[in-house]
């Protein structure tokens, strides 16, 4: 087994996927990956190296930004296997690479948090959730509380019709994202875990926009804007993409502040970062 295969397996496990099957199929399978599951198994066994143009897909699904040490390891181990021998790698490739050292302790702590608590939603689960506001918001309430709720309680919190919430809860049960604890009460089997949406499947961008619409609607009806800020700068797109990956790391670290029981002044908060290009200039 080559260096790349070993690194791929470790990073797949670090991302919360215990098996190759879970990594491949929970992220959309052949509709997302440019190869079959059988071929993916050959990658993990060191029988093949992926094409270079497939690396961003694998890195994206593993959610590894360019600022992460794991990104450097993933690419360098790929190059080591690509150039066959250590001597070739050291003489031809290593002089071109900027060595990275150390590693951020906060970054490692965040990785442990996500690895231990991550639950990866499947594409079908994602599609159902984002097609039904009542199902989505009922899911958010349940996954962020260790207790149980009935439809009437959730309808009051969400200011949605009881009938819509009941229908949404039924969908969550069918998706195994909720279960009945008594005749009319529900709780989430993944309460308190860090759930992750799938990426890259056909129609993903449209569903992402639908999620943004769900947020805006709920905030306008039941919430408030606590803070907004922004800047406009002129730079190159590559630099901005590298910068936003660092913001994403800070954003994910806010999960450490989450609680899963009712507290005074508690609420469901939406924290977002956006990077938008106004025009070419």
What secondary-structure arrangement, pairings included, does this model have?
Layout: H1 3-14, H2 20-25, H3 37-44, H4 55-62, H5 69-82, H6 86-93, H7 105-117, E1 118-120, H8 123-131, H9 133-143, E2 149-150, H10 151-158, H11 162-174, E3 179-180, E4 185-187, E5 194-196, H12 204-222, H13 237-253
Parallel strand pairs: 1-5
Antiparallel strand pairs: 2-4, 3-4
Helix pairs in contact: 1-5, 8-9, 8-12, 9-11, 10-11
Share in helix: 40-55%
Please list the strands of the largest sheet in the order they lie side by side: 2-4-3
User: Largest sheet at a glance?
Assistant: 3 strands, antiparallel
Distance between the termini: 48 Å
Q: How many helical elements?
A: 13
Q: Based on DSSP secondary structure assignment, what is the total number of beta strands?
A: 5
Please tell me what the overall shape is: globular
Could you name the ranges where pLDDT drops below 50 across 5 or more consecutive residues?
Answer: 99-103
> β content, as a range?
under 5%
Give, in order, the helices and strands. Answer: HHHHHHHEHHEHHEEEHH
Chain-averaged pLDDT: 85
